[in-house]
Design goal:
alpha/beta; TIM Barrel; eight-stranded parallel barrel; two-stranded antiparallel ribbon; 13 strands; 3-deoxy-8-phosphooctulonate synthase activity; Aldolase_TIM; transferase; 3-deoxy-8-phosphooctulonate synthase; DAHP1/KDSA
Length: 272
């Protein structure tokens, strides 16, 4: 996929990886704008193409009392305000067919959650909006099987598709990243590595997902070395108090240092 299909995306000629980053969920306008402003400054400085990420609702929760959102249109309007304020594209998850047209009126990229990536009607609905579609690889799926998910988007008349690896289930409570899958999936579409979700430790006995954020840089470096087209990183200025995925988000204060080192690695890799 040509990155120029994503509206407002800057620095597309920098030879850098692109970045999908932001909080797991939109918790309010102030927090979204605060996080977006910081990431925009960092990515402009480093010339990284940046898409702001925030879920307008969270449908795949472990418990019925888990945070799911602040209201669909309220959260989508905040995503639009981020885009208008900072002149950046935005991406959000959709969970059912009716979400596709709703979210497409506010954001530039529609993301299909990993658990739902085999749902044909959902993929077709996303494709038919004409927006860029980001397919999260199911934790239960092989890299090779993602060619069929990508083909569903293309067969629906939309070539603007990318694939995001977010780890593969390893037992009941852990995930691994199989880096052999990156060149495989890049044959089908531009490929992103979801660094933070790959470090989740799901389905803990408490019903709250755990994580290993201390491994974020290790996974991200390996992705860059293995030629991923983009990185996906959830970040928050106070991860411990985040209402969703608190255990595996990157502290926003650590983002600039991490991205600076990754850009330097990409510059080295580009020489080969």
């Amino acid at each position: 996929m040509d990155l120029k299909h994503i509206p407002k995306l800057k620095h597309t000629d920098s030879s850098n990886f692109f970045l999908l980053a932001g909080p797991c969920a939109i918790e309010g306008e102030e927090m979204a704008l605060k996080i977006a402003e910081r990431i925009v400054k960092i990515t402009d400085k480093l010339e990284i193409p940046f898409v702001f990420k925030g879920s307008f609702k969270k449908a795949n929760r472990s418990r019925i009392d888990s945070f799911t959102g602040i209201g669909d249109e309220k959260a989508l309007n905040i995503l639009k305000k981020v885009s208008d304020t900072f002149d950046v594209p935005t991406v959000t998850d959709i969970h059912q067919e009716s979400d596709a047209a709703l979210a497409a009126a506010y954001v530039d990229v529609l993301q299909i959650p990993a658990f739902l990536v085999r749902q044909t009607d959902l993929l077709v609905a996303a494709a038919e909006t004409g927006k860029v579609v980001n397919l999260k690889k199911g934790q239960f799926m092989s890299p090779e099987s993602m060619q069929h998910a990508a083909q569903k988007i293309k067969d629906s008349g939309n070539d603007k598709v990318m694939i995001t690896d977010r780890g593969t289930m390893f037992g009941y409570q852990d995930l691994i990243v199989d880096f052999r899958g990156i060149p495989t999936m890049r044959r089908y579409a531009s490929t992103v590595l979801d660094v933070t979700h790959s470090l989740q430790q799901p389905n803990q006995s408490s019903g709250v997902t755990g994580g290993r954020p201390e491994m974020i840089e290790t996974i991200a470096r390996a992705g860059i070395v293995n030629h991923v087209d983009g990185l996906f990183i959830e970040t928050h200025f106070n991860p411990r108090e985040a209402k969703s995925d608190a255990a595996n988000m990157l502290d926003l204060d650590l983002l600039e240092g991490l991205l600076t080192r990754l850009v330097n690695i990409r510059k080295t890799i580009n020489q080969f």
